[in-house]
Amino acid sequence: MLSVALVVVGFGLLLARISKARINRTDASLQPILGAFDALGTELKSMKEQMMVKERLAALGEVSAGIIHELRNPLSVIVGYARVLHKTLEEEDPKRPLVEAILKEAETMNSIVEELRRFSKAESLKKEGFKICPILFGIRDNLDPSGERLFIPEGPDLKIYGDKTLISHALLNVIENALEVGDKVVVDLKVEALQGLQPRVVISVRDNGPGLKEEDLTKVFLPFYTTKEKGLGMGLAFAQKIVMAHGGKIEMENSPEGGCICRVSLPLY
Length: 269
Description:
Helix content: 55-70%
Strand content: 15-25%
CATH superfamily of the largest domain: Histidine kinase-like ATPase, C-terminal domain
Number of domains: 3
Order of helices and strands: HHHHEHEEHEEHHEE
Radius of gyration: 24 Å
CATH class of the largest domain: Alpha Beta
């Protein structure tokens, strides 16, 4: 049914665009209809992109589950033997630091496996209507109580419908990422209402960091991709997964004023 609807809308959009120039000159009363078709075309393109991303995320989830299965058992064996060996060594033994280094690296590997497990896990959404501003203010109070680096102005009293815990986690990841690359972060909140489509809440997070190369803008949401020295590169990947599970959209672009803007778009409640 969805594919048929997409074809019908696409065909209608094509017809509208073919005759748009003539209609512009002959009948201004049809402008709202053309505007609605344009909005549907934009939404159609967005839906296509989201479907492609969802397919990629599903494939990554399956691959991640396979990697976890292959890594966990041998990693447990390595850690087990290293701990036994560590207990048998005296404090002065020159081999002790080597064993401790093995245990430390194994702990890092365990963290990676755990991140993979979380990413491959299907999220169960517990949806409810909730206000978005208190979520943002709670993140500000947690990350920057003084308000010197993270600026969140008083915004409209908007509500969305979704899993409050997961949405909070996604926004926390986005804002944390911005704070890691810049010393000033501004969060903006607005409603985007395209003609004929469901209104959306758009949360924009702008940093004053160095920005990203064009090729990096399309990769920032990939698991384990990062341009920073520290971190596993999973924060934005989780954020994208959560946002898309709610029928939303997340995108990154360079700001003309410098730095990057990450926009999270979610259906208005």
